[in-house]
Structure formats: C-alpha cells, structure tokens
Amino acid sequence: MPSFHIRPLSPADEALFIDFYTSLSDATWEMFHPHPREREYLQTLIQSLPQRPDLALFMAGVHEEGRERMAGTVFFWDWHTQVPWFGICVRDGYQGQRLGDQMTAYAVETARSQGKGGILLTTRKQNLRAQALYLKYGFEIIGVDAHDEHLMILRFN
User: Model-level pTM greater than 0.85?
Assistant: First the structure.
C-alpha cells in the first residue's frame, strides 16, 4: 500500500490540481462534484487561493516514479465560519486503500485545532461507503439538502 502525505495546496500546485480533477472517472465525479471540472475554472480556483479566506484546500499526495501525484483532496468551503463545509475525494486507482479514512481524520483534526465548532457535509444517498466512513467519525445525518443528498454534521464539544 502506498504511503500518503497530506499538505495544503497552493497556486504552485496548479498542474497537480488540474491533473487530479480531469482524471476522475464519471462514476467518481458523480459522487463528488463540488464545482465544475473544466480546466479554466480549476486554474482560476487554485490561483485565487491566497485571496480566499473562505476556502482551504489540501492534497493527499503520493510519490510515484520520482514525482508527486495528487491521490486525493480535502477541502473546506466557508472556512472563515464557525462550522465550515467539508469534503474529500479519492482519485480512481487509490480508492479502497484507506485514504478516505486518513483524509477524514486529517480534516477533523484540522478543524478542531483551528477552533471550529464542527463541520458539515453532504453525500449522495446512494454513496453508502462514504456515509459509513463519516458515521464512523461521529457525523450525524440531520436532514436532506436541496439536491436530495444527506446533510451530515460533526459537532465538536
């Protein structure tokens, strides 16, 4: 099993970021689609990071053949609020290797260490694997959002 590391993304990671999003299969994208995956949008998004206190992006990386590859992403929207939105996505080919677990643990610890009151997320009703992961970490299903997805929250004490 590969050894993954998690670190913040920066504008210098544009090529890794675009490669990650444009490589996702339609099946993976169907479960994870926080924003468009067109190249121009992705370029604008990652280049705007230094001016976006509302957005925190991280990458789960792996070193292969002497270079770093983005195997997953952790993100927070509304990071400047007390209870930001959270999400993860694992690249095809790395799914089933416990990377989602590692990224969720990282996200929970990051939010707690920054004094957040909790984190929110939505997940497709049919994404039972993700729901099981989030429930393991103490998330609760608190309703359904406007897109008929489960709305989940993890409250910190």
Answer: yes
**Exposed e or buried b per residue across 91-101, where buried means at least 16 C-beta atoms within 10 angstroms of its C-beta:** beebeebebbe
Q: State the amino acid at position 146 in one-letter form.
A: A
Q: What is the pLDDT of residues 28-51, one digit of tens each?
A: 888 776 677 889 999 999 999 999
Q: Which helix (DSSP H) or strand (DSSP E) does residue 15 occupy?
A: helix 14-23
Length of the chain: 157
Can you list the positions of beta strands (E) in 11-149?
Answer: 55-64, 67-77, 85-90, 118-123, 140-144
Q: Which amino acid is at 46?
A: I
User: Which tokens go with 66?
Assistant: 């002497």
